[in-house]
């Protein structure tokens, strides 16, 4: 296998050559996955022009060759029909964008930004960037905003992800530095997972935990989560606390640790400060009081404290459940308090370990890409830090005025304070809370630039200037994963059409803006490649807590990914921090934080009696701009569905599958509901991925609240008061059409704006298809239905049709080469599962013609059975197939051997284990 740092383009074969044409040699380029913060190594298989496949890199220390269901399908995403390929410019609000060239596009942007800055000042413009950028991209944007424009209005979508963890680490330990590494997950004796469905969000790390638990059954795992998830299935103890009560839980555990004498007084005395104040606070958090606040059994609380207190090595892992909260900083510090009180930090298998949500959120924090930060973990509000960076950059000063964090920034856009906004590699029109206001802000902003690889995102709709960016596998740079490990990201193939790497776009724009804002002065952006950006940036970390000044691309290529600190002269990275008990605080001691417990901003009341939680799907990523192009990734969860406990359905006289209206104080959605005993009564659950592209009504975040933590400014995306009622939508619509799915998607999606409910997703595996479900109070105009039929290709040709105008019912099925290729049901959709099954099987049933030509709802011989979901996406194994195997007496190993499910990424194994525990098994004679 040949692995190279970068692959040259293979020259084309001359047209008139008499020599036989030789296929390009298959090559392999080592890079990283572009999804979560685990930072898995990936080997891209390609021919120099096109990505052909992917496999896990067995040499990468994050994953040792394993990939999850998302990472293993990277080569199937990035559909060219969804890619932004050329600059597009809109010359006036309300006009359509038209194709431009790079020079005209960037000159126009520079002129608009320069005029805006001259007229309204540097804080009238802003940059909103992303944890999916490479470190070099991040650095270029920071230098652009701070050194050239002179504003701190630069924030990242990491604000929605990790900013509470940043504050927690800095307040408690003195620096934003996770002290652990992945190996500690395997070496811990007691592991606490809080606010993370690790099995879905960080699946490769969860596989490592599963293997460790199997090898050492005495390892104890505690999971804190209001909802029962796949992660809970591995736990010895699940604490299903009431949403938002984490601080009370951690204070209560500390109360018991102190009462039982399970604290390390010698460590506290030698290495910490503030314990007395915390001790006084937690005295009131008795087991009785905390069990009542958290809604858990007192015995479970005591058990959790005992497991932690008696553990030789205690490790904690957490993610959005703690961070996305108005008390996110307090939750982080309260958890870190447990480690400091027990001396469980700075040693093997122990420590507080935040799991980063995005692939390079860490790199963004390192380069200063939050509005309150500067490169090298410096503070924008610190005059000495500003002076240090200004001297290094060769500018007189950096801006003093505090920058706006994400929620504040978009509110400033909405009220007209920010008049030019540059958005890169992120989709705020799906991901930010209170989407009504976000869409209003983007619609009214005088000039919006969107730098994006996929033109299909909700945010691109508002772009006055759309700049096509290179995507995964098409650019070079570096990323830092959750364990502080930096990996060299290598380019395998060229970007399509005119798409460019993000740093190239940013620096090209910056040079044009320089000519307008500081003519005649030497350029600050003379970078020739990504490596020159890295080399300039790394020295800003010298003698800082994250010192990586000793690293280079060459070292990363020759020695592999490295953990910082890696100062000049170092031979290898640093596996664990604080082993000597010295912390980067003013006193050198870690700080106990005595934050009071405060309930969430929104509580249950008579109008909104349910608390809505949000989370991840197993096979989707964020707003689905990439994963949403791969039909097979919808096999496990086909559409947006609200989960409620069966008791809540009974109270509202609802049935699984019915359409409901879900309301919060900010907006409402129409979508199907399902019974789910994993959700406690009084609560509701909805995946966070669904935006206005896939689910009409602005998606999940039309419901969530913009209130944020006062220290981290991270919004409360995990807790919103809601109510659910039956949606009276008698006229329903169903369609499925295979082929050309992205173009059809773009053409059809606008036609469903008049429907109350509309879901557009993908389905299929070998034959991807667009799947549409919609409903409204009455039939749409005939002209609209005709437009839809034309785009579904059921208006002419080999189409079987039945119409009953009186009942406003219509049926269309297109059959080619003896199989169904397109379906449209209007007015009633009882046969949709039967028809979808026929399409999936590649056939046209003998009863099809008779049913289509008669006023029948359900076809002859059909029991209306719904197609089984795909349980194992890697090997295409359905839930029905697994259940049939269980019924024949197969155990987990038997299922793996016969069906191959669970033998690739392993993400389906927890679900298979649950089926094994609940499904009937054949009884031997």
From TrEMBL:
<dbReference type="GO" id="GO:0043546">
    <property type="term" value="F:molybdopterin cofactor binding"/>
</dbReference>
<dbReference type="GO" id="GO:0042128">
    <property type="term" value="P:nitrate assimilation"/>
</dbReference>
<dbReference type="InterPro" id="IPR027467">
    <property type="entry name" value="MopterinOxRdtase_cofactor_BS"/>
</dbReference>
<keyword id="KW-0500">Molybdenum</keyword>
<dbReference type="InterPro" id="IPR007419">
    <property type="entry name" value="BFD-like_2Fe2S-bd_dom"/>
</dbReference>
<dbReference type="GO" id="GO:0051539">
    <property type="term" value="F:4 iron, 4 sulfur cluster binding"/>
</dbReference>
<comment type="similarity">
    <text>Belongs to the prokaryotic molybdopterin-containing oxidoreductase family. NasA/NapA/NarB subfamily.</text>
</comment>
<dbReference type="Pfam" id="PF04879">
    <property type="entry name" value="Molybdop_Fe4S4"/>
</dbReference>
<dbReference type="GO" id="GO:1990204">
    <property type="term" value="C:oxidoreductase complex"/>
</dbReference>
<dbReference type="InterPro" id="IPR041854">
    <property type="entry name" value="BFD-like_2Fe2S-bd_dom_sf"/>
</dbReference>
<dbReference type="GO" id="GO:0046872">
    <property type="term" value="F:metal ion binding"/>
</dbReference>
<keyword id="KW-0534">Nitrate assimilation</keyword>
<protein>
    <submittedName>
        <fullName>Molybdopterin-dependent oxidoreductase</fullName>
    </submittedName>
</protein>
<dbReference type="InterPro" id="IPR006655">
    <property type="entry name" value="Mopterin_OxRdtase_prok_CS"/>
</dbReference>
<dbReference type="Pfam" id="PF01568">
    <property type="entry name" value="Molydop_binding"/>
</dbReference>
<dbReference type="InterPro" id="IPR006656">
    <property type="entry name" value="Mopterin_OxRdtase"/>
</dbReference>
<keyword id="KW-0560">Oxidoreductase</keyword>
<dbReference type="GO" id="GO:0045333">
    <property type="term" value="P:cellular respiration"/>
</dbReference>
<dbReference type="GO" id="GO:0016491">
    <property type="term" value="F:oxidoreductase activity"/>
</dbReference>
<keyword id="KW-0004">4Fe-4S</keyword>
<keyword id="KW-0411">Iron-sulfur</keyword>
<dbReference type="Pfam" id="PF04324">
    <property type="entry name" value="Fer2_BFD"/>
</dbReference>
<dbReference type="GO" id="GO:0016020">
    <property type="term" value="C:membrane"/>
</dbReference>
<dbReference type="InterPro" id="IPR006963">
    <property type="entry name" value="Mopterin_OxRdtase_4Fe-4S_dom"/>
</dbReference>
<dbReference type="InterPro" id="IPR041957">
    <property type="entry name" value="CT_Nitrate-R-NapA-like"/>
</dbReference>
<dbReference type="Pfam" id="PF00384">
    <property type="entry name" value="Molybdopterin"/>
</dbReference>
<keyword id="KW-0408">Iron</keyword>
<keyword id="KW-0479">Metal-binding</keyword>
<feature type="domain" description="4Fe-4S Mo/W bis-MGD-type">
    <location>
        <begin position="26"/>
        <end position="82"/>
    </location>
</feature>
<dbReference type="InterPro" id="IPR009010">
    <property type="entry name" value="Asp_de-COase-like_dom_sf"/>
</dbReference>
<dbReference type="InterPro" id="IPR050123">
    <property type="entry name" value="Prok_molybdopt-oxidoreductase"/>
</dbReference>
<dbReference type="InterPro" id="IPR006657">
    <property type="entry name" value="MoPterin_dinucl-bd_dom"/>
</dbReference>
């Amino acid at each position: 296998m040949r692995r190279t740092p970068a692959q040259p383009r293979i020259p084309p074969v001359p047209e008139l050559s008499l020599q036989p044409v030789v296929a390009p040699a298959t090559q392999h380029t080592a890079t990283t996955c572009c999804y979560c913060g685990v930072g898995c190594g990936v080997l891209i298989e390609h021919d120099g022009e096109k990505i052909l496949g992917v496999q896990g890199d067995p040499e990468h220390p994050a994953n040792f060759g394993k990939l999850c269901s998302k990472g293993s399908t990277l080569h199937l995403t990035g559909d060219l029909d969804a890619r932004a390929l050329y600059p597009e410019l809109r010359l006036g609000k309300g006009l359509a964008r038209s194709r431009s060239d790079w020079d005209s596009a960037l000159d126009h942007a520079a002129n608009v930004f320069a005029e805006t800055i001259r007229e309204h000042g540097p804080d009238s413009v802003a940059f909103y960037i992303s944890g999916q950028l490479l470190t070099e991209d991040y650095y270029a944007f920071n230098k652009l905003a701070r050194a050239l424009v002179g504003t701190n209005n630069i924030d990242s979508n990491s604000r929605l992800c990790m900013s509470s963890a940043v504050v927690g680490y800095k307040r408690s330990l003195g620096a934003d530095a996770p002290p652990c590494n992945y190996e500690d997950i395997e070496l811990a004796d007691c592991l606490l997972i809080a606010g993370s469905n690790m099995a879905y969000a960080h699946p490769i790390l969860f596989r490592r935990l599963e293997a460790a638990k199997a090898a050492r059954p005495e390892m104890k795992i505690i999971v804190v989560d209001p909802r029962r998830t796949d992660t809970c299935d591995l736990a010895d103890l699940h604490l299903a606390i009431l949403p938002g009560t984490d601080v009370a839980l951690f204070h209560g555990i500390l109360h018991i640790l102190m009462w039982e004498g399970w604290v390390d007084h010698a460590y506290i005395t030698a290495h910490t400060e503030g314990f007395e104040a915390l001790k006084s606070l937690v005295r009131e958090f008795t087991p009785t009081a905390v069990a009542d606040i958290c809604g858990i059994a007192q015995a479970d609380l005591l058990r959790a404290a005992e497991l932690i207190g008696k553990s030789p090595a205690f490790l904690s892992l957490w993610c959005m459940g703690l961070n996305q909260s108005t008390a996110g900083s307090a939750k982080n510090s309260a958890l870190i308090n447990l480690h400091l009180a027990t001396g469980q930090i700075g040693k093997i298998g122990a420590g507080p370990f935040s799991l980063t949500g995005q692939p390079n959120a860490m790199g963004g924090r390192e380069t200063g890409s939050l509005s309150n930060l500067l490169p090298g973990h410096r503070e924008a509000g610190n005059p000495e830090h500003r002076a240090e960076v200004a001297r290094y950059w060769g500018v007189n000063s950096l801006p003093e005025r505090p920058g706006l964090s994400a929620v504040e920034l978009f509110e400033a856009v909405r009220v007209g304070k920010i008049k030019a906004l540059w958005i890169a590699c992120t989709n705020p029109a799906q991901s930010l809370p209170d989407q009504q206001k976000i869409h209003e802000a983007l619609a009214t902003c005088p000039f919006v630039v969107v730098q994006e690889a996929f033109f299909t995102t909700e945010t691109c709709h508002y772009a006055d200037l759309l700049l096509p960016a290179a995507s995964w596998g098409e650019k070079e740079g570096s990323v830092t994963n959750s364990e502080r490990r930096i990996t060299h990201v290598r380019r395998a193939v060229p970007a399509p059409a005119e798409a460019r790497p993000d740093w190239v776009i940013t620096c090209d724009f910056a040079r044009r803006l320089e000519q307008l804002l500081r003519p005649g002065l030497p350029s600050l952006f003379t970078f020739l490649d990504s490596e020159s950006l890295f080399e300039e940036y790394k020295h800003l970390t010298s003698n800082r807590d994250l010192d990586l000044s000793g690293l280079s691309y060459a070292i990363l290529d020759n020695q592999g990914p490295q953990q910082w600190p890696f100062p000049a002269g170092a031979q290898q990275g640093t596996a664990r921090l604080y082993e000597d008990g010295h912390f980067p605080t003013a006193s050198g001691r870690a700080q106990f934080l005595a934050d009071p417990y405060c309930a969430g901003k929104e509580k249950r009341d008579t109008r909104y009696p349910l608390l809505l939680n949000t989370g991840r799907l197993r096979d989707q990523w964020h707003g689905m701009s990439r994963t949403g192009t791969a039909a097979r990734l919808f096999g496990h969860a086909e559409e947006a569905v609200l989960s409620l406990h069966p008791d809540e359905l009974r109270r509202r006289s609802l049935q699984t599958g019915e359409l409901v209206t879900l309301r919060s104080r900010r907006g409402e959605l129409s979508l199907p509901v399902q019974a789910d005993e994993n959700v406690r009564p009084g609560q509701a659950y909805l995946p966070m991925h669904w935006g206005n592209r896939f689910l009409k009504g602005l998606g999940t975040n039309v419901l969530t609240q913009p209130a944020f933590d006062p220290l981290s400014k991270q919004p409360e995306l995990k807790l919103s008061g809601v109510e659910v009622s039956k949606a009276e939508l008698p006229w329903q619509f169903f369609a499925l059409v295979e082929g050309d799915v992205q173009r059809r998607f773009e053409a059809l999606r606008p036609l469903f704006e008049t429907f109350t409910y509309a879901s557009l997703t993908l389905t299929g595996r070998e034959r991807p298809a667009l799947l549409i479900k919609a409903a409204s109070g009455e039939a749409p105009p005939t002209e609209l239905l005709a437009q839809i039929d034309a785009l579904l290709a059921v208006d002419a040709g080999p189409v079987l049709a039945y119409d009953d105008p009186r009942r406003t019912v219509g049926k269309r099925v297109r059959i080619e080469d003896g199989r169904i290729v397109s379906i449209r049901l209007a007015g009633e959709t009882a046969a949709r599962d039967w028809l979808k099954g026929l399409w999936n099987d590649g056939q046209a049933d003998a009863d099809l013609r008779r049913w289509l030509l008669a006023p029948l709802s359900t076809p002859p011989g059909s029991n209306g059975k719904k197609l089984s979901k795909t349980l194992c996406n890697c090997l295409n194994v359905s839930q029905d197939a697994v259940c049939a195997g269980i019924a024949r007496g197969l155990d987990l190993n038997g299922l793996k051997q016969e069906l191959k499910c669970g033998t690739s990424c392993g993400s389906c194994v927890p679900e298979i284990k649950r089926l094994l525990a609940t499904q009937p098994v054949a009884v031997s004679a």
